[in-house]
Design a protein that fits this description.
Length: 596
């Protein structure tokens, strides 16, 4: 169980706990902090002997990350244990109800209400009890429940949070994702929305929340344990940065067949794609930045208006949508609550949704009309790297699919664009071979107070992404700006020796923008900034403006983010390392944000 938790730790790491069903009842240990704290606590402890149990790593939502709020949670008798991922939105009302019944709570969590509800409703049939309890819960949850009176059974349920069952040889597993049990089996069953699975010696059984047998999706995991290990690097993130050429190649593979772009799943008619008259791109964080890049390509290729919006904002305003609106929802995990809610909001208004996702069968693709997977492989580092590049590639495929459907590009033009995309893994490999100087620069910048990032056109989302990486990894103040906006305010931030990273466009591809950016750099140089310039190889005009020059290969303008983001990822990782931070697990963050 601890091995499994280690692989899931990226999902949350502010406390951890285990419960084992033993001959004497439940043995439970919980500890605030990293999993290592729990492991240290368990050393030498006897009594954790059994063949069934549950474990949890937490990312705090309700209640501070302290021992007593760690999972598993128990009822008053100590016979029921529960672990939970998600948020139970009506927990407050349930808690008031339970307290009125005389139940004493020992934590501040929403999860503990489930343990008490199970104990109160239990009548000797744990699966039925769990179903009954689930029917009373609102929000998103994956729950795993045991009762000491039925020691050979574990019951789990899911609504809007992930849960997979691993089917081994005389052993069974339950986890939020397959990496937890891939070492033991690749044979897996993915649970659907509002389903309950009972695992017993006789096998497993899946029902809906009312006890009716429910259909499930049985699948074979097609990546192995080594893909989820660090492959000789100190951190997963560093390995994932190096995997970017492969992630790009895998994302493109198989999507250009007989001269046409094809998606992975299309549950809408071709005509619906042709009828699209407006595109919204919705996503969060890094995925949102990939969406900003998509806008330039989709508008250019299709002449459709494209709006890019943060999912959390889109959801709570009144976007104008109808059945001819295509909403492109981008999410690595496919389970980000903000994006999922935005998808539902769009579908309620009859818009078509196309998901771009890195996780097979996750909730967002399940609820969408079409799906394109980024085949970047598992991304364990909390900061997104290879999935960002893969998302950009997938966005371009969507743009080309739309151009093809609408006839705004001839098929030979689509083929040429696709062919250019196919050259990008090699270009990214070339960048990766030259990042040692970026590492050295990162070490020099480790004591900076702040770093600014500037870009124009597709360089602007790159600037935003560079700043986000630095904030989340190095806990350093960082801001990305559209370079043209500088003079409208941010230039006041420039002071002597402030590092400013500038993402240059190609002097050939975008001569006008290039010239404008050179002026922007001289403005900040005149005010004392230390300029770090990312520019195309052979761009000699930029040299006098760069205190530090980072060269990237020449590629078509729209594809530049694929090469210019890579040095920024390396820079942020190196600054974070030099400052002594855990690059894979930045503070306060979780890989999958399943709460709004
Ligand atoms: C930043 C990062 C986050 C995610 C965001 C969306 O490095 O990883 O900003 O991009 O939380 O997550 P997904 O793509 O899973 O929806």
């Amino acid at each position: 169980m601890l091995d499994g938790l280690r692989r899931l730790e990226y999902r949350g790491y502010d406390s951890a706990g285990v419960a084992v069903i033993t001959a004497d009842g439940l043995a439970v240990e919980r500890k605030a902090g990293r999993l290592a704290n729990l492991e240290a606590e368990l050393v030498g402890q006897e009594g954790f002997v059994g063949t069934a149990g549950m474990g949890h790593t937490r990312w705090a939502t309700h209640g501070a990350p302290v021992d007593r709020n760690s999972h598993p949670h128990r009822d008053v008798s100590g016979k029921v244990a529960v672990v939970h991922n998600g948020i139970i939105e009506n927990f407050h009302a349930l808690r008031v109800e339970l307290e009125a019944d005389g139940v004493e709570f020992s934590s501040d969590t929403d999860t503990e209400t489930v343990a008490h509800l199970v104990a109160r409703e239990y009548d000797g049939d744990l699966p039925e009890t769990v179903r009954k309890v689930c029917r009373r819960l609102e929000g998103a949850f994956t729950l795993v429940v045991t009762h000491a009176d039925e020691p050979d059974m574990i019951v789990a349920a899911r609504r809007s949070s992930p849960l997979v069952v691993g089917i081994g040889d005389k052993e069974m597993f339950l986890a939020s994702d397959v990496s937890a049990f891939i070492e033991h089996t690749r044979d897996a069953v993915e649970l659907g929305q509002d389903q309950v699975v009972t695992i017993a010696r006789s096998g497993y059984e899946v029902t809906d929340f009312y006890g009716e047998p429910a259909p499930t999706n049985h699948f074979q995991v097609n990546w192995d344990l080594s893909a989820a290990e660090k492959g000789g690097h100190d951190y997963f993130m560093l390995k994932e940065i190096e995997e970017q050429p492969e992630a790009l190649a895998n994302t493109l593979r198989g999507h250009f067949v007989d001269g046409r772009i094809v998606l992975d799943e299309q549950r809408m008619a071709d005509q619906d794609l042709r009828d699209v008259d407006k595109v919204f791109v919705i996503a969060c964080g890094t995925a949102y930045h990939s969406g900003l890049v998509a806008k330039y390509a989709i508008e250019h290729w299709t002449r459709l208006p494209v709006e890019v919006e943060l999912a959390s904002e889109f959801r709570y305003r009144d976007p104008v949508l109808d059945r001819d609106t295509l909403v492109v929802a981008i999410s690595q995990s496919g389970e980000t609550a903000d994006t999922l809610e935005a998808v539902r909001h769009a579908r309620e208004q009859k818009a078509r949704v196309l998901a771009i996702c890195n996780t097979n069968g996750a909730q967002i693709p399940r609820e969408s009309d079409a799906v394109l997977y980024t085949h970047a492989g598992p991304e364990v580092g909390v900061a997104a790297t290879k999935t960002f590049l893969a998302q950009i590639a997938a966005n371009f495929l969507v743009g080309l699919a739309l151009a093809q459907a609408r006839g705004t590009k001839y098929s030979d033009e689509v083929a040429r664009e696709f062919h250019e995309l196919e050259q990008m893994p090699a270009a990214v490999s070339q960048v990766l071979q030259t990042v040692d100087s970026v590492r050295a620069l990162g070490r020099q910048l480790a004591d900076s107070k702040a770093v600014l990032f500037l870009g124009r056109h597709v360089g602007y989302p790159v600037a935003l992404e560079g700043a986000l990486k630095l904030k989340e990894l190095a806990y350093m103040h960082a801001e990305g700006f559209a370079a043209g906006e500088l003079k409208h305010g941010p230039i006041a931030l420039i002071e002597q020796d402030l590092p400013v990273v500038v993402v240059m466009p190609s002097p050939k591809g975008r001569a006008v923008l290039h010239a404008k950016l050179l002026s922007n750099i001289s403005e900040i140089q005149a005010r004392g900034a230390r300029t770090i310039v990312i520019a195309e190889e052979g761009d000699e005009t930029v040299r006098p403006f760069a205190d530090e020059l980072i060269e990237v290969p020449q590629v078509p303008t729209l594809l530049q983010p694929l090469v210019s983001t890579v040095p920024l990822q390396v820079l942020a990782a190196e600054i974070a390392r030099a400052r002594g931070y855990d690059v894979d697990k930045p503070r306060n963050l979780a890989k999958s944000v399943t709460v709004e």
